[in-house]
UniProtKB/TrEMBL annotation:
It is found in: Nucleus, Nucleolus. GO terms for biological process: ribosomal large subunit biogenesis; rRNA processing. Pfam families: Ebp2. It comes from the Eukaryota. It comes from Formicarius rufipectus. Residues 102-114 have a biased composition (Basic and acidic residues). Residues 101-126, 156-254 are annotated as: Disordered. InterPro entries: Ebp2. Belongs to the EBP2 family. This is EBP2 protein.
């Protein structure tokens, strides 16, 4: 005990409180019971009671020290232009940021891979169901054909089902085409220039036009009409003979 007192006297200094800032108090009053909590009643094994006792003791110290600091005109709030260096350097923070980013990207990749696997499983399941249904339909049709060939059945319902299914598919495709229709540009051109029509072979003869001879005129066809004679005139009389006729004329002259 004498040694402890001697050591205390050696390192103790008689300084003002503002230099020491030591506050030793008991816990603050309990707001529920309005009594100071008994330190002996705190169970050291109970973490909640122990931490609450520390918290109340700190509250009591703050309530005691703040008025004394304000009385001594010591600022207790951080100024607006306060600047302090971070405990960790920028390089270390950059490494941490890159590591967090890589972790996030890895999680996103794994999530996307899970979604792709789930979609593949679903697509495979649908495909297998369709194949099984087709195989079942094919098997049923083959069994019906065998029964018909053996004479066990005289019904041809399977052919009707097949035809109706094919017709249904054709109708569905035709309805899709009719619903689609021409676009706005095509409709505008049809309205402006008409719907066109068949161009190639439009002047070919048909059976009806070939047999129709009501507009045939023999005089006009064989250049015997009055109009043709007038048209020819002297030029028709002074027409140069052909090459063979000229050759015969030369032979006669010799």
């Amino acid at each position: 005990q004498d040694g402890l007192k001697q050591c205390l006297a050696e390192f103790s200094r008689q300084l003002t409180w503002v230099e020491r800032l030591d506050v030793t108090l008991g816990p603050v009053l309990d707001p529920v019971s309005q009594n100071a909590s008994n330190t002996d009643a705190v169970d050291p094994e109970n973490d909640f009671q122990r931490e609450m006792s520390f918290y109340r003791q700190a509250q009591a110290a703050v309530l005691e020290a703040l008025p004394r600091l304000r009385k001594l005109q010591v600022p207790t709030r951080r100024p607006d232009d306060y600047f302090a260096e971070m405990a960790k350097s920028d390089q270390q923070m950059q490494k941490i940021r890159q590591k967090l980013k890589s972790k996030q990207e890895a999680m996103e990749r794994s999530e996307k891979a899970k979604q792709l696997r789930a979609m593949r499983k679903y697509g495979k399941k649908v495909q297998t169901e369709i194949l099984q249904r087709r195989q079942k339909e094919k098997k049923n049709m083959l069994n019906a054909v065998k029964k018909y060939q053996k004479g066990l059945s005289d019904k041809l319902d399977f052919l009707d089902d097949e035809q109706t299914s094919s017709q249904g598919n054709k109708k569905g495709s035709a309805n899709q085409q009719t619903k689609k229709g021409p676009n706005a540009k095509r409709r505008y051109k049809n309205q402006k220039f008409g719907f066109g029509g068949k161009k190639k072979g439009s002047k070919w003869n048909t059976k009806e036009s070939f047999n129709d001879v009501s507009s045939f005129q023999s005089k006009v066809a064989h250049n015997k009409g009055p109009g043709k004679a007038r048209k020819g005139g002297k030029k028709a009389l002074n027409k140069r003979p052909g090459k063979r006729a000229r050759q015969k004329m030369k032979n006669r002259a010799r």
